[in-house]
Amino acid sequence: MSDQAECGGHRAAPVHTHPDDVPLLTALSALADPVRIQLVRDLASHPDWALSCSNFDVPVGRAAKSHHFSVLRDAGLVEQRDQGPKRLNRLRREEFDARFPGLLDLTLRADDAE
């Protein structure tokens, strides 16, 4: 299975929402799920574009993982790009922090890990 199929389909490039266009409730909802928090934490601990979708070890199937990435894109948290058969990811930290100062810092605090 291609990496693209695992996290958002393989035909069209993913659609990204800019954090400036994201309501607070959408951002909070995206960060309220433990799987999405893990995806965000994994992205935050790696350089931009270093992780493909298959690099994430989360306890969900590929359809659910695709859904979680879609929610994160819609919330302006994640940007994805295709490189060959892989879909690479980056956390849009700078843009998201400009829109919601401190929210990612709270999410990424190790002492709040489940």
Topology:
Blueprint: H1 3-6, H2 24-30, H3 34-44, E1 51-52, H4 62-74, E2 78-83, E3 86-91, H5 93-99, H6 103-108
Antiparallel strand pairs: 1-3, 2-3
Quickly describe the structure:
It contains six helices and three strands. The protein has helices at 3-6, 24-30, 34-44, 62-74, 93-99, 103-108; strands spanning 51-52, 78-83, 86-91. It has a three-stranded antiparallel beta sheet.
What does this structure look like?
There is one protein chain. The chain is α+β, with helices and mostly antiparallel strands. It has a single domain, classed as Orthogonal Bundle (Arc Repressor Mutant, subunit A). Helices cover 42% and strands 12% of the residues. The chain has 6 helices and 3 strands. It has helices spanning 3-6, 24-30, 34-44, 62-74, 93-99, 103-108; strands spanning 51-52, 78-83, 86-91. The chain has a 3-stranded antiparallel sheet with strand order 1-3-2. The radius of gyration is 13 Å and the shape is globular. The chain starts with a helix and ends in a 6-residue tail after the last helix.
How much helix is in the residues? 40-55%
Total domain count: 1
**β content, as a range?**
5-15%
Quantity of strands, as a count: 3
CATH architecture label name: Orthogonal Bundle
User: How is the largest sheet built, in terms of strand order?
Assistant: 1-3-2
Mean pLDDT: 89
Low-confidence stretches: none
Largest sheet: 3 strands, antiparallel
Shape: globular
Oligomer: single chain
Rg (CA only): 13 Å
H/E order of the elements?
HHHEHEEHH
Total of DSSP H or I helical runs spanning 4+ residues: 6
**What would you give as the CATH superfamily?**
Winged helix-like DNA-binding domain superfamily/Winged helix DNA-binding domain
Distance between the termini: 31 Å
**Under CATH, the topology is which?**
Arc Repressor Mutant, subunit A
